[in-house]
Amino acid sequence: MLKNKTIIITAVTLALIILSLLIYNFYISNTYANSNPETTTRIYIRGSGATFPLPLYEEWFKEFMNEQNNIVVDYEGIGSGAGQEQFFKGLTDFCGSDPPLSHDKWLKYKGKVLQLPTILGAVVVAYNIPEIPGNTHLNISGEVLALIYKGEIEYWDDPHIKSINPEIADKLPHEKIIAAHRSDASGTTQIFTTFLHKSAPDIWPEELVGKTIDWPIDKTGRGIGGKGNPGVTSVIVNTKYSIGYIEYQYAIKNNLPIATVMNREGVFVLPSKTTIQSAAKYALNTGLIPDSPDKDFSKELDAIIYAPGKDSYPITAFSHIFVWKHYDNKEKADAIKKLIEWIYTEDSKHVIEGYVAVPDEIKDIALKSINMIEG
């Protein structure tokens, strides 16, 4: 009898222990699942496109993901042209593009796509001329650049170049100019060639404006293509007597000398926060930038490139992201909206050298997209 009671007590005790362990494990597992980001459902946002803002986007998306543990943003810098192609094929969730959509393409996707100017940047003219002292800058104009890329100015000591560089004219060598340019479909190229056409229309015709062009300099054997801003930067770094156009941050990162560029008022200016903002301020005052992200931005480049003002840097531009108004699921749409909200409220805290935050007027326009996106 005593033996049976002992067995029963032991069995009950074991049952209570097991039940306690099960309850404890259930509590711990649920608490862990709710607090540990590794066990939560992750939403992946994939984008591709412009290399112009790539260094900044890498910084932004890293900071955003640190704050949003369940959202992963993957962005690949493949050029604006390739990025647009992937986006419109449905291969990515958003696209990075320096120029906005052309009018015809906007009409095709009207009501489906939103365009958001994310950052202001500058295309700079970098060069590799050992004879020029490090404490001076080469002066360059749109007319001279157009003649160089047309292949009509062959040597660095050409009279056209010497005439606008009186202080270093005797330092300019009798060496052939190597002109670097993008080999891929590029928004940076569209910005640069737009500047060439606006500043020297008689030399650089409109048919030589675009993301990809048939570079006249290549026919002389003195043109070299590079993929993306990193590719063109590499060409300049590794090729003596070369010149090329790249986003400002790439010149800073690689310690490349940059030229002062003649603006519309005939003033040679360097890119800076002040000179970039001056061009943007003029663009906003033209009325060519629409008041909603679902409208046509195709005249934006014309408004900001080669803008008037003695302080305006002439090769200034916005870079953009394109997003859809409708996504297949609510989770993806909500993640996109969180990213947009972060960009236009936290961006100024994380802007790196070489870029300038967009004006508040642009932020207000872009934030309207949050109420337009559905999933």
From TrEMBL:
One of its GO terms (biological process) is phosphate ion transmembrane transport. SUPFAM superfamilies: Periplasmic binding protein-like II. The chain crosses the membrane at residues 7-27. One of its GO terms (cellular component) is ATP-binding cassette (ABC) transporter complex. InterPro entries: ABC_phos-bd_PstS, PBP_domain, Phosphate-bind_PstS. The keyword Iron-sulfur does not apply. Coiled coil: none annotated. The keyword Transmembrane helix applies. It comes from the Archaea. Residues 35-346 form the PBP domain. Signal peptide: none annotated. Keywords: Membrane, Phosphate transport, Transmembrane, Transmembrane helix, Transport. One of its GO terms (molecular function) is phosphate ion binding. Gene3D superfamilies: Periplasmic binding protein-like II (3.40.190.10). Belongs to the PstS family. NCBIfam families: 3a0107s03 (TIGR00975). This is Phosphate-binding protein. It comes from Staphylothermus hellenicus (strain DSM 12710 / JCM 10830 / BK20S6-10-b1 / P8).
